[in-house]
Each structure stands twice: as C-alpha cells, then as structure tokens.
Amino acid sequence: MNTPFQYGPTPTDLGERDAYEGVSIPISRLLERTIAAGKDGQLNGLTFRRCMIHGPGVIIPDGNTRFVRCDLGDVRGDIRNLFLIAAGPMITGGVFLKGCVFEDCRIRGVGFVGDRNYVDNMVRELTARGSAQ
Hints:
This protein has 133 residues and is α/β, with parallel strands linked by helices. The chain has two helices and ten strands.
C-alpha cells in the first residue's frame, strides 16, 4: 500500500534556516519571519526538499531559482493559470526568490509573476516536461 507523504508542521525557527525538508511552509509567513530575523526582503539561496509550499501568495523567482520535480497543483487544464504577467518594469507585493531550489515539493495556492518572456519560457519548459495538467 502506498501511503501519501505526511508533511511536518511549520518549523518554529522559520526564517532562520537555509534549508527545509519535509515540512509545511506558508510562503508569506516565511518572508515575514525572514525579515524579522534581520535578513533583507527577499528569500536568498534557500533549499526546500519534499516540502509543502502554500499560499495564498505570489512569487517572483529570479533566473537562478530552480523547481525540480515539483507538483504545482491543479491548473484546471491550462498551465498558464499559474502565471501573472507584470504590467510594468517593476513588480511590487510578491515574494522575491533569489537562487532558491525547490526539489520534490508540492506548491499550492501560489502564483508565479514575471515579465512576458519569463512566463512564456516557464510555460514552454513545463509543457515540454509534461508538467502541464
């Protein structure tokens, strides 16, 4: 019998670590706790393995942030439903990710924001990998 993976609770030291494994992470609370720990207003170089990353929230990944074998959730038949295109040259109100790695994570209730080129590239990559639902 194959039982589903059970995620651990959100760590009490959220925002103070460089790596998380097997836990539930509310993305907006992670940013709040990171700022409270005296770090800047973005998530830098963090690693997430087998975590449940959940919103509500939007993330703004840089070109060095990777999503490896991640389940991005129900896209209602169109992978483009995960993405928002920035209307101007600056994005405000999202969680900036710089050089983060997400491996084997489940991501729920989180949108991805970027310029049209970023969104087009991500849609193309996810569709080619068979991640589109």
